[in-house]
Design a protein that fits this description.
Layout (H helix, E strand, L loop, with lengths): L20 H11 L9 H15 L9 H14 L17 H14 L4 H21 L9 H25 L5 H4 L2 H17 L1 H6 L1 E4 L5 E5 H33 L3 H5 L4 H21 L5 E5 L5 H10 L5 E5 L3
Antiparallel strand pairs: 1-2, 3-4
Length: 322
């Protein structure tokens, strides 16, 4: 060992207390920081080496605690917590704000014609499919057939919902039509996430004790994890898809916006981005990343196995995904 940094810093866990909402919010502001998207492969690799070496008791000379935590958050932003593999760039949580502000802004701007609705819902669900696959819980593989079924089902659900609501809002005040994309996104999340993570619902996700020792796989834990992620994702969309339409509805009546209609899309995208910078980490923080469940709520067979091998354990933990 070299350097003065102690080896007892628990970088397996976030830096802030995950038992509180504010602690989780601080953690996710770091994880979803859009600047992480710009980091080079060399920086990511250096962070990975720093983190993995520290876990093995090897400390880079001169490494400070702040530098260690920075490396940990760079590592967490780019590598899957269960598999350790580097995640697709656009699927990382740090890409959520720049990607979603562009797609959501366009969905809210180009909602008046059927081709535009279909195209932007398709783009959004293509992006969501990548995000849901990239941030799945557990280390089990998912087949291309499962991916395809999830993708087609979610895209179809979003488009049908959007077109159905669009036709219903024809005789309502114009502002109501602006909320159609949000309803479609909410419906699609309820379809896309469970479909994309259907293998977890069938075979379960890893559950462990407080020290991280794997105890088995649970479908009950998978159900809880997926419900929490669906709620968080819909929550993320609420500010970005509910606030800008109200503002834009007022702005479009102004003479300045009527003279320069080309500003509509950039202003909409900017407003969405401003909302997402705060909504993304705050909604990720609604539930602990390391979620928990009482042993008594697990499947009977898994309960029995845990009680036989670890009779003192009353609570299990699992990565809920994002």
């Amino acid at each position: 060992m070299s350097g003065d940094l102690p080896l007892n810093i628990n970088i397996k866990e976030p830096r802030w207390d995950q038992g509180t909402f504010m602690g989780r919010a601080q953690h996710f502001f770091m994880v979803t920081d859009p600047r992480n998207v710009l980091l080079s492969s060399e920086v990511l690799e250096d962070a990975r080496v720093t983190v993995e070496n520290y876990r093995l008791g090897i400390i880079k000379p001169g490494l400070t605690e702040d530098e260690l935590w920075r490396a940990k958050y760079i590592y967490d932003s780019a590598f899957h917590p269960d598999t350790g593999e580097k995640m697709l760039l656009v699927g990382r949580m740090s890409a959520q704000v720049p990607m979603n502000m562009t797609i959501t802004g366009c969905m809210l701007t180009f909602y008046r014609t059927t081709p535009a609705v279909v195209f932007w819902q398709w783009v959004n669900q293509s992006f969501n499919a990548i995000v849901n696959y990239t941030n799945r819980s557990g280390d089990a593989a998912i087949s291309m057939n499962q991916l395809g079924a999830a993708y087609v089902s979610a895209t179809t659900g979003a488009v049908v919902t959007a077109l159905g609501l669009k036709s219903l809002t024809k005789h309502l005040p114009p502002i109501m039509g602006r909320f159609v994309p949000f309803a479609a996104v909410a419906a699609a999340n309820c379809i896309n996430i469970p479909f994309m993570r259907q293998r977890e619902l069938k075979y379960g996700i890893p559950v462990s004790d407080a020290e991280g020792k794997r105890l088995g796989e649970s479908t009950k834990a998978a159900q809880q994890a997926i419900v929490q992620v669906v709620v968080s994702r819909i929550g993320m969309a609420v500010p970005a898809m509910a606030i800008p339409p109200v503002i834009m509805n007022a702005l479009e009546k102004k003479a300045f916006m009527k003279r320069f209609p080309v500003l509509n899309a950039p202003v909409q995208v900017g407003l969405v981005g401003l909302c997402l910078v705060f909504a993304t980490p705050l909604c990720c923080a609604l539930f602990p990343q390391k979620s928990s469940m009482k042993v008594s709520s697990l499947e009977p067979e898994l309960q029995e196995n845990i009680r036989q091998s670890n009779p003192n354990i009353t609570t299990v933990y699992f990565n809920k995904g994002l």
